[in-house]
TrEMBL record:
Keywords: ATP-binding, Magnesium, Metal-binding, Nucleotide-binding, Nucleotidyltransferase, RNA repair, RNA-binding, Transferase, tRNA processing. The lineage of its organism: Bacteria, Bacillati, Bacillota, Clostridia, Eubacteriales. Its cofactor is Mg(2+). Residues 226-346 form the HD/PDEase domain. Belongs to the tRNA nucleotidyltransferase/poly(A) polymerase family. The keyword tRNA processing applies. One of its GO terms (biological process) is tRNA processing. InterPro entries: HD/PDEase_dom, HD_domain, HDIG_dom, NT_sf, PolA_pol_head_dom, PolyA_RNA-bd, tRNA_CCA-adding_enzyme. This is HD/PDEase domain. GO terms for molecular function: ATP binding; metal ion binding; nucleotidyltransferase activity; RNA binding. It comes from the Bacteria. Gene3D superfamilies: Beta Polymerase, domain 2, cca-adding enzyme, domain 2. PANTHER family: MULTIFUNCTIONAL CCA PROTEIN.
Amino acid sequence: MLNNIAWDIANQGGRVFYSGGYVRDYLLTGQAELGKDIDLEVFGLNKDELISVLSTYGQPIVVGKSFPVIKIRHNPKWDFTLPETPQISYREACARRDFTINAMMMDVLSGAILDFFDGRKDLDNKLIRHTTEHVFAVDPLRVYRAVQLAARFSFSIETTTLELMKQTNLDDIKPERILAELSKLLLLAHKPSLGLSYMQETGILKCRHPMLFRLIGCEQSPLNHPEGDVWQHTLQVVDICARLKIKSQDQEVLMFAALLHDLGKPTTTCSRNGKITAYGHDVEGEKLARIFLNQLNASKSLIIGVSKLVREHMHPILLYKSRDQVSDKAIRKLVNRVNVRELLLLAEADFKGRGQERDFAPVQEWLNDRISRLGLDPEKGITPYVQGRDLIALGLKPGPEFRKIMDQCFEMQLEGKSRQEILNRIKEDI
């Protein structure tokens, strides 16, 4: 259908091009990313003429005023844009793009590629390079885009581009836009550490993410962490989680938890008798992870999911180390607090992210076995045996003591008592 649209546009004296990431991905892989929206740029028609053509194929939706995008519902969606002015040249249109690898256009009908800034050459050289000196001034978010693209494609950022990034004022970027770029970095890169390292080098961490910046130089015990400081450990954990995330039911939660899991160490790390410790960094980290994500206007579900994993990330190892003394109640409480399957993914990355080969399988097998023996689902909390209606049936009336009794019933359940045993105990106490 897109070819038909392109022919109709051509018959009206216009020309339509694939643009942006579509051309880049096509040249990299021979095909565009499946399910991704397709950006198309139309020349030679005005807005009304383009809407008239598109109306034949569906209901056009116009988004934006200054630079309107005309969308057609399709899978994937097609986003048609027009140049800022009718007289703009192809080269000038491409110059508005951020990086050379995104500044190419491909004629929908002929397949001819317009490449005014050597984007194909930079693709071959695995290089992120700006199109003009003004790209970051026009939109400072492009600094984040550069690092996430470098991570996604394992590209280097050209030296002059890096210098421009270092000079860019990042103060006025909307938090939710930053969150979107960080999500792409964490979710789409095989090695997110490449982009995170560029964030350190260009000053992004120091300027916009001081909690992450404080991880740099935060010492750890050489015995337990031969890889170095907390930042180096975090980079390794994030990369390992990037490989494990295919097993996750909520990859965004897992990856942000990997990035933020040790935020509490800078404020809890101390040295006693030559031993470096960070007791309580999990509790402190939960608080800081919430603040970090709130500052980026993250969704409530992302904040809750990440903070839970950060708070619990040490428990699988701690329980395993004292496995002969761990009660069934402790296992039940853990299952009730957090999705243990997701927690084990983070704990595995944390365990292995230390610059050396380590076998996490014994920890995973032991904890899963204990959960299975208790008949629990590691991905679901525990449903209380006794509900409010059961207490009412016993003659109790809702009131100040009602919640306390409910909590006592659940505590007995965690201790392993059956529903009937719990109800009998309540009857005795009435």
